[in-house]
């Protein structure tokens, strides 16, 4: 028996959230005695990159290298993962909570007749049952969910699990996925790459600007700070509504939900709808000239000051490090 982990990758790299899912599965296997952790990766990705998944605790990676899987067609991925699940005799599938993960997990819950819990934040309590703690209401509360099915799917919340990095390289095995035309009934006909060097939903550090930045001509300051920190750039909703920044940078309840290690908010008031998208961040730094700005209540560090003075000084100080 094994625990299966569905791995996502982008631009040749396995996503950190998937490595967190592997780390979770590794600890779960030690707890429940479900054997080794096997990962399944689909589409074109380098073998050495896949072997490195072992560092997070996978013994083996099944690689379904069929190039038709590159497009991320959800039905095809769900079908391939179901085949991997049967192949390794798993009862538990672990994956990262993400747009693709959610879509694949929902289909797999039907295919595998599995109980699905999303936004899992810690290992299940398996003493006398199987109860899983998950984050709800955009991180404001937790719920305990009892899973009673034999097959289980756990989608792990980003940044909730410590990443394991001390394992040995995994063996990579070719996985011959059987796919039919029906698996490709839904087609992705065009994709557009988001601008910016680092993609916002994946970023470990995010620098966001709000209406306090006064206009798009001042965004160089945000970009300079982001560059020196190796961060993605984000913004508040009104900023993208006015057209100062593209919509895919809009962070919050109605935009991208981020969970970086560090979130720097510049000239953003901290309305509840914005906080809903950032409150899973590990550390929040707020720069605002109004000491009463609500964002300071959610901040780990706050700088009361004019962004036009503080941000360039901060960038210069970081450059000098
Ligand atoms: P403002 O509220 O105008 O705040 C600007 C801040 O900049 C102020 O705190 C001010 O003190 C500060 N400031 C001004 N000048 C400077 C300076 N020189 N230096 C430093 N600080 C300065 N908003 C989101 O962001 N994301 C969402 O997903 C979202 N979803 C919404 C959904 C609904 C249904 C609704 C009703 C609203 C939603 N909003 C969302 C909007 C939200 O309520 C706020 O209006 C918005 O977040 C405010 O954006 P802001 O902080 O950039 O602007």
TrEMBL record:
SMART domains: ETF. Keywords: Electron transport, FAD, Flavoprotein, Transport. GO terms for molecular function: electron transfer activity; flavin adenine dinucleotide binding. It comes from Algoriphagus sanaruensis. GO terms for biological process: fatty acid beta-oxidation using acyl-CoA dehydrogenase. It holds the Pfam family ETF_alpha. Belongs to the ETF alpha-subunit/FixB family. Its cofactor is FAD. This is Electron transfer flavoprotein subunit alpha. Residues 3-188 form the Electron transfer flavoprotein alpha/beta-subunit N-terminal domain. Binds 1 FAD per dimer. The lineage of its organism: Bacteria, Pseudomonadati, Bacteroidota, Cytophagia, Cytophagales. FAD binds at residues 211, 267-274, 288.
């Amino acid at each position: 028996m094994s625990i299966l982990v569905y791995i996502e990758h982008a631009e040749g790299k396995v996503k950190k959230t998937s490595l967190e899912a592997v780390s979770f599965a590794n600890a779960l296997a030690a707890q429940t005695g479900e054997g080794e952790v096997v990962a399944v990766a689909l589409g074109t990705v380098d073998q050495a990159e896949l072997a490195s998944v072992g560092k997070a605790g996978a013994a083996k990676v099944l690689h379904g290298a069929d190039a038709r899987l590159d497009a991320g067609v959800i039905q095809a991925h769900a079908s391939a993962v179901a085949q991997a699940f049967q192949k390794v005799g798993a009862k538990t599938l672990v994956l990262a909570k993400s747009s693709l993960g959610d879509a694949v997990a929902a289909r797999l819950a039907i295919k595998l007749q599995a109980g699905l819990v999303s936004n899992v934040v810690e290992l299940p309590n398996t003493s006398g049952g199987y109860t899983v703690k998950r984050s709800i209401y955009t991180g404001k509360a937790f719920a305990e969910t009892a899973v009673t099915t034999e097959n289980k799917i756990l989608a792990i919340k980003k940044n909730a699990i410590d990443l394991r990095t001390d394992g040995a390289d995994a063996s990579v095995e070719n996985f011959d996925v059987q796919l039919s035309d029906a698996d490709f009934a839904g087609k992705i006909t065009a994709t557009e790459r988001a601008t910016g060097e680092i993609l916002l939903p994946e970023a470990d550090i995010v620098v966001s600007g709000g209406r306090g930045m006064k206009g798009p001509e001042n965004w160089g300051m945000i970009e300079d700070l982001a560059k020196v920190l190796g961060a993605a750039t984000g913004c508040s909703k009104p900023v993208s509504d006015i057209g100062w920044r593209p919509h895919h940078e809009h962070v919050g309840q109605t935009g991208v939900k981020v969970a970086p290690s560090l979130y720097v908010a510049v000239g953003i008031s901290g309305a509840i709808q914005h906080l809903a998208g950032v409150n899973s961040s590990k550390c929040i730094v707020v720069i605002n000239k109004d000491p009463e700005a609500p964002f300071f209540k959610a901040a780990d560090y706050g700088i009361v000051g004019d962004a036009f003075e503080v941000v360039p000084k901060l960038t210069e100080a970081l450059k000098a490090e």
